[in-house]
Structure formats: C-alpha cells, structure tokens
Design goal:
single chain, mainly alpha, two-stranded antiparallel sheet, 4 strands, about 35% helix, Decahaem_cyt-c_DmsE, Multiheme_Cytochr_ET, signal, DmsE family decaheme c-type cytochrome
C-alpha cells in the first residue's frame, strides 16, 4: 500500500515538473517572438504622415476660437481674438457668385490635378484636410476659394471662384477678407486702415500659401527682406551705403522694426515712436539723463538716417554741418563753418578736424556727469 502511494506521488511530481518546463519554454518563445517583432518594427521605414497624424500635431496655440464658428457665427475682421481653427474654417461667400454651393475638393481636383499635386504638401491644404471631419470635404479648396458649383458649370467665366491675383475679377477686399476670416487679430488687428491696405495690396502680394518658397511665413519670396524690397527698392538701395543697418548681413530683418500688417504709426513701426523702436537695441541711449539733448529726446531721425548713410554712424549729414542745423552763430564758433572749413577744403579750420564738434562734445546723446551740461563728459 505504501509502495502504491509513493509511486502515485512520484507520478504527480513528474507531471508537475513537466508542466513547469512546458510553461517556461512557451514563455521564452513568446519573449523571443516579442523581441523579434520589436526589432522588425524598429527596422521598418516610417510611412508618410496620415491625416490623423497631422490633426494630432496641429498647434493648439492661437487656434481656439472655433466654438462660435461651429454654430454658424463669423468673427469680425476687427476682432482681436484668437484665429479660427482649421476644423472650423468657414466657406467664404463670393459676391460675384452669390448662389454657388460647395462641391467638395475631389471635384476641384478632377480638373486642377496639377494644382492639387503642387499644393498637397502645403500646410494649409494638409491642415484643412485634417480638419475636414468638422467642416466637410470641401474645406481643402473651398475654404479659401469659396463655393465652386457655378465655377464648375462655367469654368471659363471669370469671377465665379475667388482668385487671389490682381488681374482676377475678384475684388481685393474680398481676397483679404477671405484670409482675415481665419487670420484675424494679433499682428493683423490694424490691417484695416493701414497704408498697405489703403494702397490696394492683397495678402497674396507678399504670401503664397500654395507652395513653399520660404522657411516660414508662406512668403512669396525667399525671405522677408526680399518680399519688402519688391516694392521698397529705394529703401533697399540705402542698405548698400557705406554705413548701414546690419540687414544685408542677415543680423536683422525689416519686421524687427516694422509690422507690415499695420500699426498705429504711419511708417508701420512696431512701437509707438521712433525712439522706442531704436532703443529696443540701443538701450544705452534711452536714459533718463541728468542733461538731455533736446533733438535726441525728440526723435532719433533728427540726426540719423535709419536705413543707411554715406556718413559715419548713420548720420544724416557730416559733422559739423549736422550740428549747425541748430547751432549757428551762437556761443562758439561764432562763424558759420562750411565744407571749405574741412581739412580737404580751401580754408581748413582746426575746430572741425577729424570728428568736428564731437572732439569735445563726446556725450552728445546725454550726460549724467555733474559737469555735463555741455555734454563734454
């Protein structure tokens, strides 16, 4: 009897050990399979981004104003709120085709295959397609170009689709209003009434959202400076002068001082005054000073040419002629110094050698020295 129990117990122990070994081998096989799967996945080439990937990667900042848009509301172009999200982009109305209906981007691509291929990689088209779950399939094209049913019926008739060129029948106001329906507020809150808007400029004069010509800003040229110099060629020529702002060297750009979309100032400065703009970089000239120089406190442009000059330090005139615009026949010198008084002139005067007035009045922007009333120190 004892022999039978011992034999039974031995059989149970052998069976249990077999199960343990079998489970261990299965676990090891599963682990090797997981490792191989991970390695295979790691070595697989990454596929192109899908619409869901783009939708997940869209920035959240400045894209949260779509609550009202989902209920049919439209932001006013003077509103200073955040921009419209891509999934709530409205279909703009075309005043030249008031009865047109949206037909969807596939209908557009059936004729405009080349444009569809060229713009497929652009941020606007990819983002509109990613947000089409809320705005419908028409968002990719008709969110900017308006409803296209009338254009599809009469493709050769001008004005039935919103076009963004000056030779198109679409009014400039309609073109800019279409862009501002999403890009409202922020840096563009003063576009209405700005000098660029009054001159009849359209957004596409500076931007091209259908292709990638610039690193940022969907510009119509390689850089901001090249876009601005397309019209402001006289200003661009001033940067070729002997003394100039470091714009050609790439250290600054036009938008460091100006906001092309409009400001409260006539020259589109990003600050309220010229002095505030200059003092953004030249903080040592800001003051306050115990002894202030009146023309310096009034406007830096009284003495300096902001873009470039043939005189040192961007001066508008050579010294002492610049100083004598205000200081003439008072105190010393009591005689008017002219270009003939320079070292190269007919009657050289020792008082205007080298730096002229600045030989003695060195702290011309202002002085905090107790003896600095004449800006000597």
């Amino acid at each position: 009897m004892r022999l039978r129990l011992s034999l039974a117990a031995l059989l149970v122990m052998i069976a249990g050990l077999g199960n343990v070994l079998l489970w261990s081998s299965v676990a090891q096989a599963q682990q090797r399979g997981d490792t191989n799967t991970d390695q295979t996945t790691a070595h697989q080439p990454s596929s192109r981004l899908s619409d869901s990937d783009i939708a997940r990667m869209l920035p959240a900042t400045d894209m949260g104003a779509g609550v009202g848009m989902h209920h049919g509301a439209r932001l006013d172009t003077s509103d200073d709120g955040p921009a419209t999200p891509f999934d709530a982009a409205p279909i703009p109305s075309n005043p030249l085709a008031p009865g047109a209906d949206a037909i969807g981007s596939k209908s557009c691509a059936s004729c405009h295959a080349l444009e569809n291929m060229q713009a497929a990689h652009s941020l606007h088209v990819a983002s509109f397609r990613a947000g089409s779950a809320s705005s419908g399939p028409q968002a990719a094209c008709e969110a900017c170009h308006g409803p296209g049913s009338e254009h599809a019926k009469h493709p050769s008739a001008p004005g039935l689709i919103i076009a963004f060129t000056h030779d198109a029948k679409t009014p400039i106001d309609t073109q800019t209003r279409t862009c501002l329906s999403c890009h409202v507020g922020g840096a563009r809150q003063h576009w209405i009434g700005s000098v660029h808007q009054e001159r009849g400029l359209s957004c596409t004069d500076c931007h091209n959202p259908m292709t990638r010509l610039s690193a940022e800003g969907v510009l119509a040229n390689d850089s901001v400076n090249q876009v601005c110099s397309t019209c402001h060629q006289d200003i661009r020529a001033q940067f070729n002068r002997r003394s100039h702002m470091p714009l050609p060297e790439g250290q600054i750009s036009c938008v460091d001082c100006h906001n092309p979309h409009g400001t409260l100032t006539q020259p589109l400065l990003k600050t309220d005054t010229v002095n505030e703009t200059c003092e953004t970089c030249h903080a040592e000239k800001r003051g306050p000073f115990l002894f202030e120089h009146a023309p310096v406190a009034e406007n830096c442009l009284n003495c300096h040419a902001p873009h470039g000059s043939n005189q040192e330090n961007l001066l508008a005139l050579p010294v002492p002629m610049l100083c004598q615009q205000c200081h003439t026949n008072t105190d010393h010198p009591n005689d008017l110094l002219t270009r003939q008084s320079l070292r190269s002139g007919l009657v050289p005067d020792e008082r205007v050698m080298e730096r002229g007035c600045l030989n003695c009045h060195s702290n011309i922007h202002g002085s905090n020295d107790p003896n600095g009333a004449k800006f000597h120190q």
